[in-house]
């Protein structure tokens, strides 16, 4: 039986995944739009820029739909991004993204017979803290594992007409913040990383687009269920406010949250905090500071609250895309106040850490079940 | 514009993001050297520009992106002069004798020192944590 390993982190801004091994990454912006047909002048070159699929799956409330996904969907006026009131475990959008990502991978790696590709995966994914606290993991696993999934590529470059049937041998549904602990403490080969945090109580603050998960792991490497919590507060709303205010003031439209994040985190001082209006450089630092300071205060209040309740915490890691943009503001607040030992991870890690953690947990699962990862499908054959 | 040559005066503004240690050093030297200031600074300028110019002209160097996901050990191996000589030889053979089978098998990337990927042995505390937190479910709960 051919089987492939996959870890998928369904982030609010993008889906990040490792396929086959820890070398192959996949990144698809989390945007979809319903679309029966596309008016095409010229097909995109890269399939990832032109994902257009029909999905039939028992895991979807809608059971069947035609979608454009990712980069292509962001060009559609009627597109859907996730909003804070939706649960990942109960919406269709995360499932659409997940199945599209796997179908794209399957088309590259599983054999094809008469245009049909049968693909079986061992999947490791996860849900936010508040949803897993409500016991939604079991349901989510069951929904993916028992349903039939079929993805047909419609007008997608290189893949048009291919049908992918996806089956799951097993689905691990982890918890986003807690999973990060595995990546923080384990290298890609399984050896120990950051040894100094083992045996200490640590806080992992995952600041995402729409939510913040605060996961506490105690000194005996146990989950602290009482004080770990997830709130529906993230950077997206604040980024949207900045985009709106910049438009009101300068009649200049920043195209997407991603573009704005690039402006905020640009390392070139000529570009950071600046937009170019009619060829002239205009600083929007005031607007950015105003909004992000508000969120940083909220996030800092959260950290203080947790630290008051769990005084044993020795280090707090800030991860997730939000930690990247809030870093200077949180650091400043912290210097003026408690001076907690806050740690930040690199921008690369802030994006990929959870997906990597899921993959490492999957490898541990294989180890415990004596599944030989070397015999699995890593190349087409 | 008059072309630059020996004896030409060059004046330019220091960029607004000039680091403090740079202009402080400049101030110190200016104070100490007075009119001899430029004869000390000019060679520094010439040296930097010369490095830049030569770097831009290095056309006999081929820059190749390093494959992603290599371990530190593997990266060390890649940057070792002997490995680079090997890669150079490989390119030479590919260009000069493309039809002749490569003499050096297996290809260098695959012959990198690789850890045994059969097992993923982790620290006990972390294994227990993952087991209890994520993997403790009934396989046939559906």
Automatic annotation (TrEMBL), chain A:
Note one Pfam family from the annotation: ALP_N
Q: Signal peptide span per the entry? A: none
Q: Which residue ranges does the record assign to the Actin-like protein N-terminal domain?
A: 8-177
Q: What's the protein called, per UniProt? A: Uncharacterized protein
Ranges where the Alp7A-like C-terminal domain occurs? 202-340
Name the InterPro entries on file: Alp7A-like_C, ALP_N, ATPase_NBD
The organism sits in which domain of life? Bacteria
Q: What sections of the sequence does the record tag as coiled-coil?
A: none
Show the CDD domains listed in the entry.
Answer: ASKHA_NBD_ParM_Alp7A-like (cd24023)
